[in-house]
Amino acid sequence: TPNAAAVTAAVVRNAAREEQGTGDEEEEPQQYNTVKLLSDDDPRPRRNPKGELWTGHDPAAEEDDHAGSSNSWWRKTRMCFEVESICHRRAENEWFYYTPRGSKEEGRPPPLQPTMELKSAPDKYDGGRDKGDKRISIKVSSNAVAGSDLRFGADGKSFVAAQSKDECRISPVKQHIVVQSLFNDMIGEFYTRTLLRLFKLMAGDAVTAAAAKTREEIVQFYVHVAYRNKKMLDGHKLLLSGMQSSPDAPEARSFVDLFTEPAEDGGGDCHCYETMVFCGYDTFTHDADILSEDLEPAAPINLRNPAGSGTDDNGGDDDDNQAESDRNDDDEEKSSAEEDGELPVTGVDPTLKYTLWSATKVGEDKGKSGENIVQSKCGRDGKTGPEMNKCTDWHDLRDFLASNFFKHYPTLERDLVKHRRKRLLDAGAIDEGYDGDTAEWTIVGLTQRSYRRAWLNLQGIIDKCNESFENTICVEVNVEKTKSPLEQLVLHRSLDALAGVHGAQLTQAVLLPPNAHVLEMLPWVTDYIRGKWVQTTHTTTPLGVIFHNTDLNHLGYSLDRDSVPLCKGVEEAELQVCFMKSRKKFLWESRDFNVDPRAVLDYIGKFVLRNTQQKTQPCEEMEVSLGDRFVLYNVHCTRDGNKVGVNHFYHDKPRRASNKGKAVKLNEPRVKLKKQSSRRN
């Protein structure tokens, strides 16, 4: 057990865990006795895999059409575990299998109905704040199958067992997909850890949105948030709606609702599902007649380091989340099972029990269990050169989502014009007699939050913006005030540009229209407090990676000391003492901020409007149009009169001072590196 000082330090370091809220106002985190919680008496469920690591479905069986789908994409990865013809009685949390109607007479393959258990323990905790959600728990035996005594209804969508009076309804949706990943309550983490991998699985070998034909199947998605003090948000529902094209596809649900809420159809307590797939879990096998808790720990040969996690955006562990994420991703490429011995047999064995534990991601790298689900390095690790400038992972995902949004929400085009018109009316830019389509107007959204990281001088900048430019208005964008996924989509898709401080609220920039603009303001951070990953200018920020090589123009702007509304009037020599007295308020993710209005006005006038008027600028002009406090992470410009290409103009990597007791402004202007560019027509 760590001593109290070490625990306190660890909890302070971990306090950065970011609430990527959308659609709901965030709550203050509950305080706990962290010394007790991090001791041997910690009551939280722990991820403690036992048995042998399952390596996935038998490739030879992938062609079998168990699920009635022409593309059982979840069988491409060991991270997705499938069961069929399964029922749930919510009141007692009782799970059992059933024999599908007519399956024996029609000679269909037997359904996948193994003995399995899904554990509630998250892969990782954040200090003393998070609680594992023990309400989410599944135990089902391959022997618990309701069979010959079932009396099916005339439509075959319900049945009653002879020994039971309650009716069990079979969902009209054939495929129910549960997705889980580390910290997926945060929208940025969900986008990178779950959605990109889900897209790659569903798209198959076709890695572009055009080649990956829009999916017409109706799927019910669930998001498994492993922490009880976290929740699913409208942002999750919106992004998952972009994975399906049909307007009849149901809205994604929180997985915990199956265990705690009455059925949405108002039916009884028993509900059944033809196919249920659990993605984002490490599955371990052992003898079916032995309880998971009674087994010895799994052999190291079959385990990656389960403690490793890392984050793609806004995480919170130790001193540098992005560095940890990179290290873990590198570690995961070294499959100990591949190096040290043969892997267990693939496929589902009815004599074994399968225990599912929350993992860090939905998919794995090629080389682990023979899988080919790519862990994207696109835009990561500070890598440059032709290879990094040709990767299209984030572009393909954004394009895929957009194409589905317009099919999933048939009124979207009209909704966008209506919303833009209302914005212009509210700003007094047009009157009721205006009958245009608003295309001649530029609308710039400035992000605001209700709980923390509030933009203190936002209204003043909006006023100056609306006085400074013709046919241009600035508006507040606050997702915490929206009431539905569609409202969030319209809010962002109706903008031409979005600007805000690094963090969750900029994740929704992936919803912007084609060739839109994003300004990410980088918090001011000294060298005696963690957070350097949020101000990188020598490569993309952890958040900015999702814009890499997309059609979006992504810029960064380094905020300075004046942006911090703390310790005003304090001498430079006393600043560190003053800041550290209010350390929690000084952490970048907790403090409110101010922005120099000139920075926003320069960005709009010299970049957004110039790009809008000229369509694209020559790269030489773009490089010098803004000051050195700006960094051009991902921009589209022309070079030597040739076709438009995506370019990346990074700064030199910063150098730290040797005197750690002295504050160092890590985001001061630096000489720019030679550009990195690629061509895309």
How would you characterize this protein structure?
The chain is an alpha/beta fold. Helices cover 22% and strands 18% of the residues. Helix 4 (234-241) links the parallel strand 11 (219-223) and strand 12 (253-254). Helix 3 packs parallel to helix 4 (234-241), helix 4 crosses helix 12 (485-493) and helix 10 packs across helix 12.
Q: Which helices and strands, and how do they pair?
A:
Blueprint (H helix, E strand, L loop, with lengths): L3 H11 L19 H4 L14 E2 L26 E10 L4 E5 L16 E4 L19 E3 L4 E2 L3 E3 L5 E4 L5 E4 L4 E5 L7 H17 L15 E5 L10 H8 L11 E2 L2 H4 L9 E10 L1 E7 L33 H12 L3 H5 L11 E7 L27 H5 L2 H16 L3 H15 L15 E6 L10 H11 L3 E6 L7 H9 L3 E5 L15 E6 L30 E6 L16 H7 L1 H4 L10 H18 L2 E2 H7 L4 E9 L5 E6 L26 E4 L2
Parallel strand pairs: 3-6, 4-15, 9-13, 10-11, 10-13, 11-12, 16-17, 16-18, 18-19, 19-20, 21-22
Antiparallel strand pairs: 1-14, 2-3, 2-13, 4-5, 7-8, 8-9, 14-15, 20-22, 22-23, 23-24
Helix pairs in contact: 3-4, 4-12, 10-12
Give a quick precis of the structure.
With 681 residues, this protein is an alpha/beta fold.
Helix content: 10-25%
Name the shape in a single word: globular
Kindly name the structural category.
Answer: alpha/beta
**Span between N and C termini?**
58 Å
Q: How big is the Rg?
A: 26 Å
Low-confidence stretches: 1-38, 64-69, 207-211, 299-345, 365-374, 656-675, 677-681
Q: Report the sheet-strand fraction.
A: 15-25%
| Largest sheet properties | 10 strands, mixed
Mean pLDDT: 78
Count of helical stretches = 16
Number of E-type strands: 24
